[in-house]
Amino acid sequence: MRVRLLTLVSSSAATVLAGLTIATAVGRSGPFPDLDVYRVSARAIGLGKGVYDVRGANGGPFTYPPFAAFVLWPFTLLPLVATGVVLATASCGAAVTIARLCLRDRPWWLVGVLCACAFETVPFRTTIYFGQIGALLMVAVAVDLLAVRRRWPSGLLIGLAAAVKLTPLMFVPYLFVTGRRREACTAVLTFVGATVAAALALPAASWRYWTSALWESKRVGAIASIHNRSVWGAMSSVGPRSLGALVALIVAVVGLWLLRDASAVVALAGVGLLSCLVSPIAWSHHVVWVLPALAGLAVARWPAYVRVVAIAAVTLAFARWSSDQHLLALVECAVACALVPVLGSQRRVHEISASEAGSLLPR
């Protein structure tokens, strides 16, 4: 009876918080601005316009690879606000799926608690507000890493996610260093295949993206922006861009080495957060990997009170995330990235048995 009550309370809290966030997003001036950019760019394919020439209502350009324009085309079928509500609801559903995957056979009330915590963080709120697809890409990666029974070659979804947005490529070297080389090759081949297919369909746009648009950091935003959450952003205030690149490379190598023996949940969170730290630019909505980070803390082999304090501290840090100091944001992201492998179980990801994994989707 107590478990059912906890489940009801936690799931209700998560649902209310998700609903309030979506309602706030709808009521904002110029709702779902990034989603608007997706729609304008996807429509450009059929109108014969350059995908990287058009801009959204907020003046924002399309910054993803050409393959993404095809994947995002269904977002043009409904009006902007209706599409935004559908995307926001799907993002919340992705959060529930990820939490369940991470927590496996643990009680449902814990899933509700973690989702409620995640929905209170700045990364998830801005994902909903802007109409971003980060949560959907994260669930694709999570299913590929955590699913026990697959009807597809492992690594396929990571490759597709990377073809839509490059940051999931960070999971390829992780797969290599953990001995999952076939999965890494599958991810790379899938990424290349999707990219080549897009190049055949949109040769001019593909040439422009890979030769110029990708390297124009100002299309995404200024690296020195106070809103940049990456190592590059923090280093921009103390030295040249080359220093940021060097530090990012060191952080990537050290981070992957620390995560090489991590459990599946810890690896998902750690590599995801690491991809934000080492990217030239990482906005707040990129750091949705805070959800599996919270799950990693929830399953840590520590006393319950330590786990509760850790989850509360990380949630509070990301819920009160300063928007005017990228160095503070970097410290918070780095702390979360460090906490997960320290507190998490350290069994290798491929040693988790099917009997331990439980069901893939909610029962």
How do the strands and helices of this protein lay out in sequence?
Layout lengths: L1 H26 L5 H15 L18 H6 L8 H24 L4 H12 L2 H9 L3 H13 L9 H9 L6 H7 L3 H21 L1 H9 L5 H4 L10 H5 L5 H18 L5 H15 L11 H9 L5 H16 L6 H18 L10 H4 L6
Helix pairs in contact: 1-5, 1-6, 4-5, 4-7, 4-16, 5-16, 7-8, 7-15, 8-10, 9-10, 10-11, 14-15, 15-16, 15-18, 16-17, 16-18, 17-18
Characterization of the model:
With 363 residues, the chain is mainly α. The chain has one domain. 66% of the residues lie in helices and 0% in strands. It is built from 19 helices and no strands. It has helices at 2-27, 33-47, 66-71, 80-103, 108-119, 122-130, 134-146, 156-164, 171-177, 181-201, 203-211, 217-220, 231-235, 241-258, 264-278, 290-298, 304-319, 326-343, 354-357. Helix 7 runs antiparallel to helix 15, helix 8 (156-164) packs across helix 10 (181-201) and helix 15 runs antiparallel to helix 18. The radius of gyration is 20 Å and the shape is globular.
What's the number of structural domains? Answer: 1
Helix content: 55-70%
Mean pLDDT: 86
Order of helices and strands: HHHHHHHHHHHHHHHHHHH
- State the end-to-end distance: 19 Å
Beta-strand residue percentage: under 5%
The SS-based structural class is: mainly alpha
The count of β-strands is 0
Are there runs of 5+ residues with pLDDT below 50, and where? 344-363
